Amino acid sequence: MTRLRAQDTNVCGVTAAIAVIDGKWKTWLLWLLESGPHRPGELRRRIPEISEKVLTQALREMETDGLVHRQVHDVLPPKTVYSLTEFGRELSELLGPLSDWGHRRLDRLTEARAAS
To answer: Among 33, 43, 51, 88, which is most exposed with the fewest C-beta within 10 angstroms?
Structure first.
């Protein structure tokens, strides 16, 4: 799904929601930011597989979509902190039941593999 799809007003609500969290890292970032504000370096340490470029891109897209707030402190060296907005917190809470469903699906797959 392209970034343009996230701006399309002629799609169903589920498609609009998925467009905002589309990608490998955004749900993980939402999950990490639920616990409170984080600096980019902290997020990279928590997700070692993500490159700095991809992290920056994902956070900027999430900021554009109104999910995260970026606060830059006027100190040397500059200090940037990301936190969830109210809109981002709402999305994160709504993803809880979807996560539960996903875990149940994984359990069923594990059981099916064990049975075969």
So the answer is: 51
CA dist 110 and 101 (Å) reads 14
> What share of the chain has pLDDT > 90, as a percent?
78
Q: CA separation (Å) from 56 to 25, 38, 60, 81, 97?
A: 11, 13, 6, 12, 28
Distance separating alpha carbons of residues 78 and 68, to the nearest angstrom: 19
At 24, list the tokens. 């490998």
Cα–Cα distance between 82 and 111 in angstroms, integer? 39
| pTM, rounded to two decimals | 0.84
**Amino acid identity of 67?**
L
Helix or strand run (H / E) with residue 26: helix 26-33
Distance CA 104, CA 35 (A): 24
